[in-house]
Amino acid sequence: MHFMANGQQLPTGFYQVDDSYEGTLVRELDNKTDFYVVPTPILTLGDIEAVQPQPDAFGGGFNLVFELNDTGTEKFKNFTQENHPIEGALLLNGKLISKAMIAMPIPNGMFNLSGFDLRKASAVSNSIQKQMGKVPLFEKDGFSVFTDRALGNDRTIYDAKAEHEAFIKKEAVPGSDCPPEFSAEYRPLSLVGSSYSYEFSSVSASACGHAGVLAGVKTVAVHSGEEVSILKYFTEQAVVSAFKKDAWVVQRAKESHLNVNTITSFADVLEFFGPEHGIVFSPSGFCIVAYGNKMAKVRFVGSEYLGWNHHGHLQLGFELQIRPEVQSEFEALDNFFLGRFRNTLKN
Description:
By secondary structure, the protein is an alpha+beta fold. The protein has 2 domains: 13-132, 2-Layer Sandwich (Gyrase A, domain 2); 138-330, no CATH class. The chain is 20% helix and 39% strand. The protein has helices at 70-82, 118-132, 160-171, 236-245, 247-255, 266-271, 327-330, and strands at 13-16, 24-28, 34-37, 43-44, 48-55, 62-68, 86-92, 95-102, 110-116, 138-140, 143-145, 149-152, 155-159, 181-192, 195-205, 212-221, 279-280, 286-292, 295-307, 310-321. It has a 6-stranded mixed sheet. A 4-stranded antiparallel sheet has the order 10-11-12-13. Strands 17, 18, 19 and 20 form a 4-stranded antiparallel sheet that branches. The chain starts with 12 loop residues before the first strand and ends in a 17-residue tail after the last helix. The relative contact order is 0.09.
């Protein structure tokens, strides 16, 4: 499906077509035609303010109208002043969507790409906007999930941009040559009724400090943001039994000289390994993989210390009987389960 450059797919953006055949090989969307581009993008998603389809005034087709932000406008103006005429290419997920000649400088941050029908123009526009976080990946009754944030009834569940700004403001040291660094990613995992599970990870470093990585999974109520325990959907006895029988738990307990038979409650599950073993589980650290016949496949995900201030996911897989009183939540038609959206867990 995708062509690789040094092992990686070229990110969505505008590129210069390389007529010397020495750039990066890419392929058109129909997989029939190969061509080359200069691998450094002219414009990235971060340079785009808006994109939308618009009827072509001179024909029956549609154009994609791009509006650049201030940074993109200045970047595109300088590039087109210094490099014209050239042929540019719009790549989406590593595939060619459209090519166009840039015959003169473009100073105002506005341009069109032509040659689309309505269906393709809308699909490309929506895909770009989703990657930009402009339109939601998922919506339901006032609950919206974007690539960088989630909102429930206008209540922020998480917001990567806001967290970045808050961290930089808090950790900045005036006059320091070492600015703080922070980036966060959030990925939707599952939605059952009103309980939303998501994956989070962040990389941060205080001014002149060492970088650290955090990762985890959390389930929250979509309209309040409050954490939801796995015990809402499955009995304590079922969760405790599955944890004690898990092959990884049994092996790790043996290596750590721990006795799984001492586990008699969910509180014991959470405390069994604990920080001293570099493993932390929380009641809300779960998501749903699949559902059927009153049973659910579940990921119970903890955080494991990997060394050097880095943490990663520790995933356990359970198959549990659903509590009868919440059975109807699993039957909602607009639910989604692990694997519908990109994530780093084992589906």
